[in-house]
Design brief:
heterodimer, A: 185 residues, mainly alpha, 8 helices, 0% strand, B: 121 residues, 4 helices
């Protein structure tokens, strides 16, 4: 009886945690593509995994939302799920998650329609994946019931550290194309 | 006279163009002329390009699904443990432990139960 009444709550929590992990993996994959920090996996392989994991993360976010919508305890309706600050339960923290959802959808849709969009538009929207990672992590660390879990906190800290390091490499390291054009420098 | 020579020149050019088009059409059939069955055979002969990380895709999908169930199971197990602890707490006489009260979420309620058990012990 207890497990039946809490099934959707567990679904929402597990879906959210796995979705956050997949978003982190997607961001790390994207940074690997742009920095080529590790040589061994071929760029085509990394790109394929990057795209697939991004799709999986969207699916898991869907599971997270379905779990919240069907949970009889939290009583999240469409308004609470999709309108920031509409819920009474930690409105600020939940708003981070809602905005992250919209950013994720924007990135996914523009990536699917990449060939039909100007490259600058696609790239501009794709850069918001940094914001997506920050928003999703803050949402997980402040809104979720598992925010007090030490393992979850350490995992968030570790992935944030990896993303920060790779971002710094991306910013500070010279571009490959520039280096190839001018091999003497 | 001039008009006549212009017209004949134009006709000559059109004839040459038509001849070139006919020759190129004989060498390479146009897509419109190509039958659907020929195209289907060609696609059958050409193997479909595989994804660069086809195996990894399956592995990651399986890993995600199993992680989801593992996390859900772990949460459920932890919740069951705290609920059992709550049952133990209720058997402790009033005054030794403070009641947790109704939480905003099951998790919050569980956290309160854990606190109560800690205080009681």
């Amino acid at each position: 009886m207890l497990s039946q009444s809490h099934t959707w709550w567990y679904t929402a929590r597990a879906g959210g945690i796995v979705a956050l992990a997949l978003v982190a993996l997607t961001v790390i994959g994207g940074l690997q593509l742009s920095t080529r920090l590790v040589r061994r996996p071929a760029p085509a392989w990394v790109l394929d995994v990057h795209r697939f994991v991004a799709g999986l993360s969207v699916a898991l976010v869907g599971v997270h939302l379905v779990g919240l919508a069907l949970d009889p305890f939290v009583k999240f309706g469409l308004t609470e799920l999709f309108v920031p600050m509409a819920t009474k339960y930690r409105p600020g923290s939940v708003a981070f998650g809602i905005v992250a959802l919209y950013v994720l959808l924007a990135i996914e849709v523009t990536s699917l329609a990449m060939r039909r969009l100007p490259r600058r538009v696609w790239h501009g929207i794709h850069l918001s994946s940094y914001a997506l990672f920050v928003l999703a992590t803050v949402h997980g660390l402040t809104a979720g019931t598992d925010r007090h879990n030490a393992l979850f906190q350490w995992a968030c800290l570790l992935t944030a550290g990896v993303v920060l390091f790779m971002t710094l490499v991306r910013i500070l390291a010279p571009r490959r194309s520039v280096a190839r054009r001018d091999p003497l420098t | 006279m001039n008009d006549n020579s212009n017209q004949s020149d134009q006709a000559e050019r059109i004839r040459a163009l038509q001849a070139r088009r006919a020759a190129s059409a004989r060498l390479r059939p146009t897509p419109a002329a190509e039958s659907s069955s020929t195209r289907a055979n060609a696609s059958k002969r050409r193997p479909r390009r595989r994804h660069a990380a086809a195996g990894t895709r399956i592995f990651l999908a399986g890993l995600s699904v199993s992680s989801f169930f593992a996390v859900a199971g772990a949460i459920g197990l932890a919740h069951r443990t705290t609920t059992t602890a709550q049952a133990v707490t209720t058997s402790i006489p009033v005054g030794t432990a403070s009641a947790g009260g109704a939480g905003a979420t099951p998790g919050a309620a569980s956290a309160r139960v854990v606190n109560t058990v800690t205080k009681a012990s």
